[in-house]
Amino acid sequence: MTEKERLKKIIIELSYEKRNVTLASGRQSDFYFDGKQTTLHPEGGYLTGKLFFEAIKGVEGVEGVGGLTLGADPIATATSVVSFLEGKPVPGFIIRKEPKGHGTGAWLEGRKNLKPGARVVIVEDVVTSGGSSIKAIKRAEEEGLVVLGVVTLVDREEGGRENIEAEGYWLKSIFTKAEILA
């Protein structure tokens, strides 16, 4: 079984649920992908990091990976650790949903690992409308980073790709909804 096949099996076992749910986008759906169940699993987290690193290896000049807390946190960490193990270290970062309420008041954690103008990739567990990805892109750019594109574990194929591309960025998905449910 390939790493991708194994990760798909873990996603189906731990992250896919057939039930009615309201998504972060506000839309109603009859199924749910809870990506954190996979990305926080020991093997699932490792495989996620491995496949995300593979997805960014060919992107010229990536200097960081990160996104909005909480979904991006384990992905950015796993990708960064795998990049180190592969001899091509790429730091991770986390974008807060609100600025830190004390100390530095920072929006972005991991700042000292990124030079001003660093070229970064936003990571996500699930993309539906692309709203969270676009929010992460805007905040990263406000923090002085140059966003290249987005990589997601699962693209629900509900307009997110089109919305992200309309903003001028690319989206790479490890899996689409169709691939998971096939």
From TrEMBL:
Main EC class the enzyme belongs to: transferase
Pathway: Pyrimidine metabolism; UMP biosynthesis via de novo pathway; UMP from orotate: step 1/2
Positions contributing to 5-phospho-alpha-D-ribose 1-diphosphate binding: R96, K97, K100, H102, E124, D125, V126, V127, T128, S129, G130, G131, S132
Species, as recorded: Geomonas propionica
EC number: 2.4.2.10
Coiled coil: none
Gene3D superfamilies (alphabetical): 3.40.50.2020
Name the UniProt record assigns to this protein: Orotate phosphoribosyltransferase
Keyword vocabulary terms for this entry: Glycosyltransferase, Magnesium, Pyrimidine biosynthesis, Transferase
Presence of keyword Transferase: yes
Cofactor: Mg(2+)
Binding site for orotate: T128, R156
Biological role: Catalyzes the transfer of a ribosyl phosphate group from 5-phosphoribose 1-diphosphate to orotate, leading to the formation of orotidine monophosphate (OMP).
